[in-house]
Amino acid sequence: MKARLSNLALVTAAVLAVVAVVRPFEPEAAADAIDVHPTLWAVLAAPDVGTEPANPPRRAPLERPRDAVIPLSPEMIAACLAVAEDLDEGLARQLRELRDRDRAAFERRLRTSRRLISMAELRERDSVLYDLKLLEMKTDATVSRLAAEARAARRSGSAQAPVLESQLRGQVIVQLAFRHRAREGYLRQLCELVERMERELEHDREHFDEVLANRMKELLEPTE
């Protein structure tokens, strides 16, 4: 696992070097340069592509099963609105207006915006990775907009097509760099999880008699 993480770090460094040629890789500057637009809604509803393995050994602590019912406690709703505010003030305003106008529709919108809920959970768990994912989502929206504009320009034979394609290429480079760095963060979490499980397993093996006695007690003397 650590060897894989090291290899991914090397790949990430190479991507960031390419990004630096196109534009210095400064998250704050990138955030200012990325325009936020309605495409964010599609980004929020889409799967979080490229940040987790295709067949993860277990979901926790990264993602809940797709068919799970997502609880919307007052705290979760407040956290989702905070994430929306971080993404775009207009997005947060739309959500607050929908909440005030139609609570049921508001909750349906949150439940279909799976990445918004995942981001709310990540915001509490890992602030560094959260900031990185925030910029990645803004970049995803920009890429979607530029791709649509470039396709339309190609179809119409517009002279702007090469310009738009060049802008799209630059944003895709930034997008991939963000994704690689986010995956590195998720891999770090997996490494920490594996290490913790290994320590727990080793402890249980070394204290087998104690673990056995505790388990027998649980079975024979259940608490009321």
Main β-sheet description: none
Radius of gyration: 22 Å
Query: Ranges with pLDDT <50 over ≥5 residues?
Result: 1-37, 50-64
Strand content: under 5%
Reading the helices and strands in chain order gives HHHHHHHHHH
The share of residues in helices is over 70%
Count of discrete structural domains: 1
Overall number of strands: 0
Summing up helix and strand content along with how strands pair, one would put the structural category as mainly alpha
Shape: elongated
- First-to-last CA distance: 43 Å
The helix count comes to: 10
Summed over residues and divided by their number, the pLDDT gives a mean of: 75
Task: List the topology elements.
Elements: H1 2-22, H2 27-33, H3 39-45, H4 74-87, H5 89-101, H6 103-112, H7 114-125, H8 127-156, H9 161-206, H10 208-220
Helix pairs in contact: 1-9, 3-8, 4-5, 4-7, 5-6, 7-8, 8-9, 9-10
Report on the structure:
By secondary structure, the protein is mainly α. It has one domain (2-220). The protein is built from 10 helices and no strands. Helix 8 runs antiparallel to helix 9 (161-206). The longest helix is centred in the C-terminal third of the chain and has 46 residues, at 161-206. The chain starts with a helix and ends with a helix.
List keywords for this structure.
10 helices; mainly alpha; 224 residues
Quick description:
The chain has one domain.
